[in-house]
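Async update (no meeting this week)

Hi team, since we skipped the sync, here's where things stand on the single-chain job. The sequence we agreed to prioritize is pasted below, unchanged from the tracker. I ran it this morning and attached the output directly underneath so nobody has to dig for it. Comments welcome in thread, and please keep replies under the output.
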Amino acid sequence: MRLGIFLLLTASALAQVEVLDSGTKESLRGVSIFDQKTIWASGTHDTYLVTTDGGKTWNVGKVPGAQDLDFRGVKAFHSEAFLLASGPGDKSRIYHLRVGKQWELRFTNHDANGFFDCMAFFDRLHGIVVGDPVNGKFQILLTADGGRTWRYSDPQKMPPAIPGEGAFAASNTCLAVNGTKAAWFATGGGAARVFISNDAGESWSVADTPIVHGSPSQGIFSIAFKDSLDGVIAGGDYKNPDQGGSNLAATDDGGKTWKLATPPETKFFSGIAYILGGSDAAGLISVGSSVTGFSKDGLHSWSFFLPAGFNSIEWKAGAIYAVGADGKIAKINP
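Output:
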């Protein structure tokens, strides 16, 4: 059931934002669009949701044996899905579901200092998970067999983390992939940096960015690339969501260098996504706990809409969905 329709007016485009009835009050932080009809979401208290009718109705489920886990990430394919649980030590896990089967636990982080943050897939067989530093290095998990088995990449091929540096499990968008080899993940806290891999996560380099950092609540929360060169990062201070400043930056060289965006007004953003295509609506859409925004000109200007924000956003197959606190799900129709 649709709870309400809001209109977004930009310089040359009108969008409808439908706030949907998800059937849950859990906080949602993961969203994955398979096609315009099939969309998954995930959240607190081992909750996941799926619609097969374009958001008209949602089935709310729980994973057996996963009580009180926090599913910060979800990835859907044609006949299967993955859930990423984020938490200290063995509360960080990966679950896998195939149609007609039961949920299967595929990996558990048994390191007490481990904490999984984000998950992405290059294709159905090849996936990657980023976790906070253990022994001074970020953890990288890789699969090449469709998630049946996972292994850690070599920490010797990972630059050391800066004290206090970590990744944010706020929206499952601190990690981005493009093609079959390119991957990036973003950090915050003691540093706001972007780690870069050109070999599908086996080895990494790192680049500084101008995004605000220094306290545990500051840094880069989201990263997105529309191709192998052009990307954006978004963040800020989640404890001060209305505070503007150095919250957005862009790259045109694959993440090696980043230029701060200076629109008239910025907020804290936890998720950002490209909207690609030939329509008037092509641009960038970003969400945060207090606001949702849209940019048509590469972050030079920003239009804010919806007084209530969201945690995460995804564009795929011509569909845009955002998820947030209290079970909020929005369908955005450009």
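Quick observations from my side:
Residues 1-14 have pLDDT under 50 and may be disordered.
The chain is about 0% helix and 45% strand.
Reply here if anything looks off.
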